[in-house]
Structures are given as structure tokens and as C-alpha cells.
Amino acid sequence: MIIKKIKLNNFKNFEGEHIFEFSKTNIIQGENGSGKSTLAVDSLLFALFGYSEQTLEKLSTKWLNSTSCLVTVEIDDYIITREYPTKITIIKANTMTLKSLKQLNCTLTLSYLKKRS
Questions:
Q1: Is residue 113 situated within a structural domain?
Q2: Residue 64, domain member (yes or no)
Q3: Would residue 87 count as lying in a domain?
Q4: Mean pLDDT calculated for residue range 31-50
Q5: Is the pTM for the entire model greater than 0.90?
């Protein structure tokens, strides 16, 4: 599995849209609290599995009054987009034209349960 790109939109400490493109070998570096773990771990867990150690309501950018966030991950030939609240889209990228993509866009809406404290 090769991660090609991660796109974050109002996800945790990333305000607005941020796009990270990857090659075969990558180093993620930065100051404490700059978002290294958010990019390398939290965004992938959320996009692929809908998982977060925090309550899902806290995934939207902290300092915005936003109640939604979005993570898109391009892995091999798939584009996986998960939004909060409750939407995931999975597309196999290399086998579809834009026209067929609009016709065959597979969207699955999921309900989240609050984690008990």
C-alpha cells in the first residue's frame, strides 16, 4: 500500500485546506504541536476507519466555529474521503473517466455513536 496524497480540510490543528503529496520515502518533521502525528496517524485512522482517540466532535479545527472536517487519502488506486459528520466516499481512481465517475460515485453514509466515558 502506497500513500500518494493526504488532503486535510479543517481537521484538528490544520485550518483550511492543506495538501501533502508523498514519494516513496518521506520524512515528516516539525516543532512540537505542529501536526506531525495529526498528519501521519490521526488523519489516516479517521479516513480509513472512522477512528479517533478524541470525540469526533473535536476533530474540526479548534479555533474555528466549524462543525465539520474532511480528510482525503489517496492510496494506490483508491481515493478515500471521510467527512465529519458522517460521510465516506471510496473511489477506485484509475479505472474510471470523469463522466463515469459522476455516474458511479459510491457514497456510503454512516452513523457514529458517541464513545462512552
A1: no
A2: yes
A3: yes
A4: 87
A5: no
